[in-house]
Amino acid sequence: MKQNNLIYWISTGLIFLMEGVMPALTGNSEMAVEGIRHLGFPDYFRVELTIFKVIGALVLILPMVPLRVKEWAYAGFGFVLISATVGHVVVDGANFQSFMPLIFLVILVVSNVTLHRKLGIEN
């Protein structure tokens, strides 16, 4: 049980840092603006995505949030990470950077699975 709890908090903490804290701190940087522009998205999408990522990360990390709400956050991050992979492959071709979001998708799945184990819920 302790090992499961440790894996849950490490994986959830990584998602919180990479999908919540980093966008909050760098969402208005020139690199973020150019990255969204490079993929062909309008600038308002960058702002919207940053806001939803920060909210989703908070939902995952706060223990008082109901499981159903957490599941929506997991689904939203899953869609974002898969869409990021597709967008990078289409625009830049298949390279390591294009598949980086899939690494975070695996971490997201680990977080979700260990959350269910922690709560005693079968997937």
Layout: helices, strands, pairs:
Blueprint lengths: L1 H25 L3 H9 L4 H19 L5 H26 L3 H24 L4
Helix pairs in contact: 1-3, 1-5, 3-4, 4-5
Summarize the structure.
This protein is mainly alpha-helical and 123 residues long. It is built from five helices and no strands.
Mean pLDDT: 93
Q: What best-fitting shape do the alpha-carbon axes yield?
A: globular
Proportion of residues in β-strands: under 5%
Number of E-state strands: 0
Radius of gyration: 15 Å
Helical content, roughly? over 70%
* Count of the separate structural domains: 1
Largest sheet: none
Secondary-structure content class: mainly alpha
Order of helices and strands: HHHHH
**How many individual helices?**
5
- For the terminal residues, how far apart are their CA atoms? 17 Å
Multimer state:
single chain
Low-confidence segments? none
Q: What this model shows, in words?
A:
The radius of gyration is 15 Å and the shape is globular. The longest helix has 26 residues, at 67-92. It has 123 residues and is an all-alpha fold. It has one domain (2-119). Helix 3 (43-61) packs antiparallel against helix 4 (67-92). The chain has helices at residues 2-26, 30-38, 43-61, 67-92, 96-119. The model has no long low-confidence stretch (mean pLDDT 93). Helix content is 84%, strand content 0%.
Keywords:
mainly alpha; 5 helices; 0% strand; 123 residues; single chain
